[in-house]
Please model this.
Amino acid sequence: QVQVVESGGGLVQPGGSLRLSCKVIGVSLADYAIGWFRQAPGKERERVSCISTSGGSIHFEDSGKGRFAISKDKVLNTLFLQMSSLKPEDTAVYFCAAHEDIRTDYLPREPYEYDYWGQGTQVTVSS
Model:
C-alpha cells in the first residue's frame, strides 16, 4: 500500500523559514514525480512546485520563485520543500502528491495526474 506523508508545517513569523517533508512509503521515490500543492481557506487548491522522476526538471509557480527550493533524497525516500521569506499569503494546508512516471523529466502539473496524495500539513505565517 502506497502512503504519502507530509510533515514539517507549523506557525512561523513573516520572513521566516520552514522545511516541509514528503515521505513516500511502499514504493521507490526514484520512480515517481512529486508535486506540492496548497489550499488556503476559501480558495481552490493551487500548485506550488513539482519535480520530475529524475529530479532533473523542476517547476515553481511564480508565488514561490526565488523563495522556495525542492530536493529529493532517494535514500530516505523523502522529498523536501524548503520555504524561505515566508509571507502571510503562504498560509495554507500544503499537500504532497506522487505520480508514477517512467518519463524521467516529465513534470506533471495538474492535480488529476497524481496517483497518491498525503493528508496535508498546515503552514501558518503570522506575527
In short: The chain has a mean pLDDT of 94. The first strand starts at residue 3 and ends at 7. The two ends are 40 Å apart (CA to CA).
